[in-house]
Amino acid sequence: MRLLTVNVVEKLIPGPKETGLTAIDKRPQVGRVRVGELGLAGDRVCDTKNHGGPDLAVYAYAQEDADWWAAQLGREIPTGLFGENLRTEGVDITGALLGEVWRIGDEVEVMVRAPRIPCITFAHRMQEPRWVKRFHQAGRPGAYLKVLRTGTIGACDRVEVLSRPGHEVTIGHMFGAQDPAKMQRMLDSGIDLMVELRETAQRVVARG
């Protein structure tokens, strides 16, 4: 399991009219990139209401999922097109558990925090019909990561799973079919959850 590329914003570009500029245009970096608690050095966040902050500091997407999309759409999905900071190889991001901890390279440690929720800026970027709905239906959202230990990372760094919590809610489960029993076990596990995800899990359990 490894990083293929580490990406930061190339330049701010126009998004949908109502959103203004966006930092979704990420490009691979040469050499090592410093990772702080709020993300990668040289990166930017424009929509701070819905993106960024410690819980959404770094966005990772798997090459295997990008390849799947390339086949579906009949076009290349170059690294950074989805706005991801990390393009990985051999990492089951959709199957990663909320609260799972990875080490990247020799220094950086991150926690899997949440699936990516597609928005109108993403749809504008892709210029594909019904993109938000299709992205939801595909169930390959990638994962936002919280930085637990800072340091530097670079292309070809190893990704190692250090720990997995004692529940069954993966990035894919949280993004798609939200099973009440699994949600309850996650809540009972006592892991640190983002407020929004905890509230979602509680609603699913209440309905179930």
TrEMBL record:
It comes from the Bacteria. Residues 27-162 form the MOSC domain. GO terms for molecular function: catalytic activity; molybdenum ion binding; pyridoxal phosphate binding. InterPro entries: Benzoxazolinone_Detox_Enz (IPR052353), MoCF_Sase_C (IPR005302), Pyrv_Knase-like_insert_dom_sf (IPR011037). Pfam families: MOSC. PANTHER family: PROTEIN YIIM. This is MOSC domain-containing protein.
